[in-house]
Design a protein that fits this description.
Helix content: over 70%
Structural class: mainly alpha
Distance between the termini: 21 Å
Order of helices and strands: HHHHHHH
């Protein structure tokens, strides 16, 4: 689904052949884990730059909220939201164009957001582990709390997938008009 149509049959066939190959002599669960890992690796290779941009922007927002407290979060939320929307729609557009599929665009946007959210969660835990003084803990509470910082990015995967699908739809429409 995430590959361009010209490569879909070859790559998926090669993966399936390796999956079924008795030479590996793996149990079914091991084969399933291997297959999912290979697909995840393909998604990572196609979206790693945008995963990095999105996770760094989310972690930067969290760090600023925690270490430079404020009462007015409007400008911070505006730039972080616009950057998140922009990256998600760009990923959706590129994936939709490359794969010629709105579903692939939604999947790529979802996977990009999920990976970035995972990296953000690890980064936020490192931040609080290293700097957890009373001022920082007060700033964390004021900015929405630790639970929000750890769960909100992952909850944004579904709206991200919807935005990716919209951008993928635009890509498909442009391809149809071009052809």
């Amino acid at each position: 689904m995430i590959l361009p149509p010209v490569h879909r049959e070859t790559v998926s066939g090669d993966l399936l052949e390796l999956y079924r190959d008795d030479e590996y002599q793996m149990r079914q669960l091991d084969r399933d884990v291997w297959y999912v890992t290979e697909v995840a690796r393909l998604v990572w290779l196609q979206n790693r730059l945008w995963i990095g941009v999105l996770s760094i922007s989310m972690l930067a927002r969290t760090a600023v909220d925690w270490f430079v407290p404020t009462d007015d979060f409007y400008s911070r939320s505006l730039w972080s939201t616009m950057l998140g929307i922009g990256v998600t729609m760009f990923v959706g557009f590129i994936s939709g164009w490359r794969a010629r599929s709105v579903v692939a665009a939604a999947f790529a946007a979802f996977a990009t957001f999920a990976a970035a959210a995972s990296f953000h969660t690890i980064g936020a835990l490192v931040l609080i582990g290293g700097w957890h003084g009373p001022d920082t803990l007060a700033a964390i509470r004021q900015s929405g709390g630790l639970a929000e910082a750890l769960t909100l990015p992952m909850m944004l995967c579904f709206p991200g997938a919807a935005l990716g699908a919209v951008a993928g739809g635009v890509a498909r429409l442009l391809q149809t008009l071009k052809d």
